[in-house]
Specification:
94 residues; alpha+beta; Glutaredoxin; 4-stranded mixed β-sheet; 2 helices; 4 strands; mitochondrion inner membrane; Thioredoxin-like_sf
């Protein structure tokens, strides 16, 4: 999958929480491995936090500049599903 990330406006932080070994976090791990560097390169001032913790269900937290936060479950999602979810909340544009 080839994705061209645009510069994001209005976002303050992206947090991805995942289990480093759990099958339910596989898509989240793959998304981070494939796209973290591209996303960070296009958005150098955006805080992108990836937290690994055993026993957690994978989640994405998006915090907007005005302080509003959205949490999205990433359980058993593949890379393309995760990207679609990020697009839906305005966290990525491609």
């Amino acid at each position: 999958m080839k994705i061209n990330f645009s510069r994001l406006v209005g976002l303050k932080e992206l947090r991805i929480i995942l289990d480093p070994k759990c099958k339910a976090s596989k898509g989240a791990r793959e998304y981070v491995q494939k796209f973290y560097s591209q996303l960070k390169k296009k958005n150098p001032n955006l805080a992108i936090l990836v937290r690994e913790c055993e026993g957690v269900k994978p989640r994405l937290w998006v915090r907007y500049a005005e302080g509003r936060e959205i949490s999205i479950s990433l359980t058993n999602q593949d890379v393309s599903d995760i990207h679609k979810r990020l697009q839906a909340v305005g966290a990525v544009r491609s």
